[in-house]
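Thread: "does anyone have the structure for this chain?"

Original post by V.I.:
We have the sequence but no experimental structure in hand. Need at least a predicted one for the grant figures.
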Amino acid sequence: MRLPGPVHAGNEGLAFLVELAAFAALAWWGFTAGDAVLVDLVLGLGAPAAAITLWGLFAAPKSRFDAGLPVVLLVKALVFASAALAVLAVGHPVLAAVFAAIALVNTALATLDRDARFRAARDEPSAG
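Reply from O.Q.:
Generated one for you, tokens below.
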């Protein structure tokens, strides 16, 4: 399913915002999870740093490793599920559910759209 140009651009923009929200949710949870300032600091910085590192290695458009679509989707699911659980843990179940739903729909649309665009580009006759 190939999304029309403006919808594609909007969905790509939303994907970036969802990624940023996931990292922010992990920080929010981390800074409030512990009973000591040092624990809060380590978790508040460490949880999003771990997610950002994992994302950069496997799920980013210019990721360090081309591990294939199943690994990319697994990393996205891990990061987004962790973020939704983090929001749930800080006491906002509705926000957690809304985030999870948006992340799921956005990722599904982006995956179908990228696959359709890849197939269309592959099937176009080359000029020359």
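V.I.: this helps a lot. The CA atoms of residues 53 and 68 lie 17 Å apart.
O.Q.: and The longest helix spans residues 93-123.
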